[in-house]
Each structure stands twice: as structure tokens, then as C-alpha cells.
Amino acid sequence: MATTTMHPNVQSLKICIVGAGMGGLTCALALARAGFNDITVYEMASNLGFVGAGIQMAPNMARILDRLGVWDAIFKDAVVLNETSIRQGSTDAELGHVDLKYIKQTYGYPHTVGHRATLAGELYNGCKGESDKIKFVFGTTCENMKFGPQQPSFTAVPRNSSTPPYEVRCDVLLGADGVKSNTRVAMLRDLKVDEAEVKDTGQAAYRIMLTREQLSSDPELLALIDADKVIRWIGEKRHIIAYPVSSKQIYNISTTQPDVNFAAAPSATYTTKGLKKAMLDVFGDFCPMIHRMLDLVPEGEVCEWKLRVHAPLPTWVDGSAALVGDACHPTLPHMAQGAAQAIEDAAVIAVVLEALPASPKPADINKALKIYETVRKERAETLVELAAASGRALHLGEGKAKEERDKQFAALKEGKGPVPDKWADADVQKMVYGVDCMKIAAFAVEQEFKEPSLGTSSVPT
Questions:
Q1: Residue 423 sits in which domain range?
Q2: What pTM does this model have?
Q3: What is the pLDDT along the chain (461 residues), one digit of tens a residue?
Q4: Half-sphere exposure of residue 228, counting CA atoms within 13 Å on the CB side?
């Protein structure tokens, strides 16, 4: 991906990234691959002890990871999904079925699923392979952020009390610090814009991983982990989505249900230990197979996440600073695009900064970041709304709306009409998977930076 024609004044721009999640890691790697050589990632955690559950890896994500040189390692552990089944939770009756084998032929990559730790770990390994360009500073928070017309700055505060805080100035500041982003708060304050309203979705999620060994005594459950299939069981205000990961050694289960445990909790609280009985009760009217599956979760290992989003922001950019991923467009999981959209953000940032003219001024950097916002903002926010709409359709209770939805599912089985589960709809997939954001960004900067630049885009044509 790297270009050999970037001017040294562009290569040496000091770039600081706040947060080492999917967006932050991909920013660092994409920028290093583009040729930048002074990249520092600040992370509050003391190390990157990767945890988490399964993650869907759609073609729009895989395409970028392949260009960054990490997809092959990630794909080795992945499972290719060949079909999806949408089923009634109470009876296990199939409402709709979609063949996914066409996706690789159409978009160049199959729809795969994997373990979040593998994805993050390989991104981090890619960054470590660029250790002459990328530096990680762990156990450090970033405070007192300042933007303005010139260089952004912040105070780095090490958690180790023996190391005093110190000021950092940089040419580019990227806030990839998640839905609870301090960068976003500081940026909106600097722009004299009200803090983004945190939207309480009224939903929470259990995230569960069962091993092949745990399923081995139940032939019906073992068949689930052996299939190349993602299944969504739906009910009123609730659903379960499940698929095999880690070379089919783990069955990943994620749920969405009404929020009960977080309702009165402070806004800073996003996770809690749950009770197994409460989880079983939530899905008490689902079919016996679901009961047996959930009953395998050991007591004390029930974790529940609150699902929160915030209102769309007026801008993602302030001077030479920009927001990335959940810091600017957190989403519900119903489109399985949260990480993919953060990775798209990172890839586009690398493309627009790579095209900077020689001896770039802060105004040039701002112009490039505004192109990033133009390329990414509407698309990301559209997918956020699609995820919310899909959740609303899946969680319908009895009534005319549910009857109409089920008619659509019935038509789908005859090969007609749209899919109420937007994630599985071919027209939506075309809009999500068929868009190459890096090529769009490369075209946009070519149009915007009219003066000849020594940094030419390395995006494949």
C-alpha cells in the first residue's frame, strides 16, 4: 500500500492517535503502510490483553485488511458463512433463508466470522511490524485537549504516579477513544457545540461463547457449530444471533433484549455481571433447544452489555483533529458493521493524508480531514440508522406490523421482495459491501488538491 513518492515533510508529520481499539490500531497501521513514520498511539489500558466475542467480517472490511497485509492471518482462523436463517424464537420455525455463497463471487471476499481477539491481535501484530514508525504508549490518559488553528495538543497523564504528566503537541490528532470519547467531548466544547446526546436505546446484550466440548453431548447443538450458517432467532423485543468461530471450536452467541439491569445505572456503566436465571427468564418463551443452549453457560460467567449510541454529530473535524469509529458514530449491532465502519474510517484517513501537498500547512491538513468527513459521515450515519431500523423490525410484537413483516419473510422464501432483517438483504449488502471507500477517497482528494502533490495515492485502481 505504501507510496515511495510522499514528500519527507509529509512522511514526518507527527500523528497522535488516542485509543488502541479497532479504529486506532487500523489508523496506525494504515498510516504506516502509507509511508508516515512518526505515529504514536496512546492507550489507557496497561496492555492490549485482547478479549471479546465473535465478530462478523464482511467484504468491505476484508478488502481493507487485505490491502494492509493482515487479512491472510485473520482468515486462517475465520469461518466462511454460506447461509443465514431467520427463525421464530418460540418454535424454531424458519421464517426466512438467504444463501450467502454469492457474496465472494460478487464482492471478491466471502462473508466470514471470527474472534474479535484474532482481528485485533493481527492488527496489533501488523503495527509491531512497523515499529520503526509506530510507538505505543500504554497506561496513559489524554486530557486538556486543545485544537485551534495550529497544532493540536494534550496532556498525557501516565497511570503510573511516578511519571509526571507531560504535554504533547502534534500535527494530526485522531480520537479513536470509543463511545465514551474524551476527544469528542473536548472537540465539541471547543466548537461551542453541545455534547452529543447519549441515546439510551433501552436495550442490552448478553455475549456468550460456548466451546465445542460444552456442546458435544447434545447432537442438535453440535449441528449448529458444525454448520456454515448464522442463525437469528427472533421474538418480541428480543433476538439471539449465533454462529461458529475459531475454526468451529467456539459457538458465539449474542443477544439483544430490553434493558432491565442498567435502567437506573449511571451513564458511565456499560457492563455488568448478570444472573443466569435472569438470562434464562428473558428467553423463557423461546424453544427448548435455546433453553438447553443457554443453560450451558456457567453460573458467574453471564455478562451483560448496555447498548448506547449518541445523536449524530454536526462535524467530526476540528482543525487538524478528527474523530474515528465509535467516537463519532456508535451503532447498534444489528447490521454487524461497527468494527467495519471504524476500519473504513481509518483507511480513508490514510488515503486523504497521504495526498497532502509538500510542506503541508494546518489548513491543508484540515482540508484533507474535511474530505475524510465528506466521504465517511453520511455513509456511516446511514448504516447506524439501518441497524436501528432492522432492530425495530426484528423485535415486533403481535399486531399488523409483525404480520406484514412475516409476509415479507414468506415472500423471501419464494425468492421475492426485501428482507426485513436488513443485514441479509441483497440490496443493502450491495450498498454496504460493494462500496470501496478508499477509491472514493482517492478520487475526492485528487479533485480537491489541484496543485501537484508528491504524495500520490497508492490505492489500487
A1: 8-78+117-197+310-448
A2: 0.89
A3: 554 478 899 999 999 999 999 999 999 999 999 999 999 999 999 888 766 678 889 999 999 999 999 999 999 999 999 998 989 999 999 988 888 999 999 999 999 999 989 999 999 999 999 999 999 999 999 999 999 788 999 999 999 878 999 999 999 999 999 988 999 999 999 999 877 666 667 788 888 899 999 999 999 999 999 999 999 998 888 889 999 999 999 999 999 888 876 544 545 556 677 789 999 999 999 999 999 999 999 988 888 887 777 788 999 999 999 999 999 998 877 677 889 999 999 999 999 999 999 999 999 999 999 999 999 999 999 888 888 776 665 554 556 656 565 666 665 555 555 655 565 677 888 888 999 999 999 999 988 775 544 445 566 65
A4: 13
Query: Last residue of a domain, which of 255, 282, 309?
Result: 309
Is-contact 256 391, C-beta < 8 A? yes
Q: Do residues 96 and 413 make contact, with C-beta atoms less than 8 angstroms apart?
A: yes
Rounded distance between C-alpha atoms, residue 79 and residue 60, angstroms: 17
What is the rounded CA–CA span in Å between residue 388 and residue 334?
7
Residue 222 belongs to some domain of the structure: yes
Q: How far apart are CA 451 and CA 173, in angstroms?
A: 25
CB atoms within 10 A of CB 188: 19
Q: What is the tally of structural domains in the chain?
A: 2
Q: Which residues on adjacent β-strands are paired with residue 210?
A: 251
Grid cell locating 243: 454462529
End-to-end CA distance of the chain: 12
Which residue, 279, 309, 339, sits at the end of a domain?
A: 309
